[in-house]
Please model this.
Amino acid sequence: MVSRPHGGRLVNRVAKGNRRQRLLEEARELPKIPVDLHRAIDLEDIAYGAFSPLEGFLVEDDYLNVLDNMRLSNDLPWTIPIVLDVNPQQLQGLREGDDVALVYRGDPLAVMRVENIYDWDKKEFSVKVFKTDSMKHPGAARTYQREDKLVGGEIDLINNVPNPFQEYTLWPAETRVLFEERGWKRIVAFQTRNVPHRGHEFVQKAALTFTDGLLIHPLIGWKKPGDYRDEVILAAYKTLIKHYYPQDVVVLSALRMNMNYAGPREAIHHAIVRKNFGATHFIVGRDHAGVKDFYGPYEAWEIFREFPDLGITPLFIREAFYCKKCGGMVTEKTCPHGGEYRVKISGTRIREMLKRGEIPPGEMMRPEVAKVLLSFDKLFVEEQRRD
Model:
């Protein structure tokens, strides 16, 4: 059967019906704290259960435990602090126990019970979460741009953030029903922020050989400059699935969640989130959630040894390449032939070819996918999105 939610219960903090109407009316009179798109996305991920067991933004005890031990204060594995940063001036007159309205673009998005107001050390956060405080790391650089106070407490979502990819969006309660309807008991999830090449396809199909279904789960949201644009990733995967996968074994669903580039810590976080969506297995890529050379190539694999109680099975599949002698995609464990027969799948080379308007070799990328990519005027994120 599908995996149990992290912590044993799928969180639902989405206010509906009369309760939503009451909270909307209350929000008009409550003190208001504006949130940017990053925190608005966090709010939805909390409310719809993607971040189960979190019921809101972390209070100080949980925050410190996550920083120091990669666990919540109840000892449940959790590696990325989900925190609400607030300008101290916006907290004047607020006390712990008060309710506030969290406002996005002028409209109330959620009501929050202020349980905790506390300070944070941004350097400590960066060093422990990202293993660096270098401004060359996109996650660390963004951390230093955040506000100086943190506010923790439970939330109730009363409105949704406009979603340009609504047709691709399924929340945990929905994927769980879908998997049950299909009779899937062993579900493997694949996290991605890239367009698919032959190596990705190989890894996914290798995992499918011993599971019932595959959840391809592109991460939609803030990404660093140079990453592929959201609409490009979805179009590429839609094309790949259409031409190269049986239609009854794959679910393509967009997950709107902030990318932190936290390497090994984020690999655990991504696994926990997919567990909440019902996945029983999770593919952990080489240099998963890495950036530049801040992490070792297999550091994200090694961290899973520290979490035997995670409740989802990580899959470590070696980097694939095309062997001309074997006539297909292989790994070092399945191919005995020398380098003269091997075509390495280089994401950098694929990017360079696409930028020049060239179709990468078929050993690297399916031609149907390449043609769809070249139909876009803009393939890559040009600058950091701000809101």
Remarks:
- Residues 169 and 254 are 5 Å apart (CA to CA).
- The chain has a mean pLDDT of 95.
